[in-house]
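Dear support,

I submitted the protein below through the web form. The confirmation email said the job was done, but the results page showed an empty box. After a refresh the structure appeared. I'm attaching both so you can tell me whether what I see now is the final result or a partial one.
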Amino acid sequence: MLSSSPKHLRYSHEKEVERLERAVKRAESMVNKDKTDRVQLEALRKAAKEEKSKQMQGKGEWHMKQKDKRELLMKARYEALAAEGGKRAVKKAIEKKQKKVSQKEKRSRPYGRGEGEGEREGRGREDGTEVGSGGGWDKNRQDRIRQWMTFVLRSQ
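What the results page shows now:
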C-alpha cells in the first residue's frame, strides 16, 4: 500500500501505519494484562476462601507472606499456561526464563570473556579478595529463581 501511494503522501501514510500498529500492540497488551490479572485474582480469591474456611473451623488469623503470594501467583500463571498451551508451553516458558537468568549471570561476572576467575591481574584488593566477585543479592535471587523453576518443572 505504501509503495503505491503518491510520493508527497507517502510520509504521512507511513506515520499513520506506525500509529495503527502501535494501537494494535497496545490493545493486545491490554488484553494480555487483563487475562493475567484475572488469573492472579482468581488464585488469590481461592487461597483467601480456603483460609476463611479454615478460620471457621477454629484456626487462628493468618496473613499470607509475600513469598507465599509470589509462589501462589507463579503457580497460577503456569497452570493457566498449561491449560491454554499444554505442558510444552510451560516447559518452553520456564526454559526461556532460565536462559534469561543465565544471560544475566554471564553479564554480571567480574571477569571478561575467556578469562578464568584468578587470571586477571590487578583485580584483587590488598587483602587478597576479588573486587565484585561476591554476587550478593543478585546471585541469591538468581539461585531462588532457578530452584523455583526446577520445582515447577517437577510438579508438572
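Response: this is the final, complete result; the empty box was a page-load delay. The helical segments are 7-56, 66-107, 136-155.
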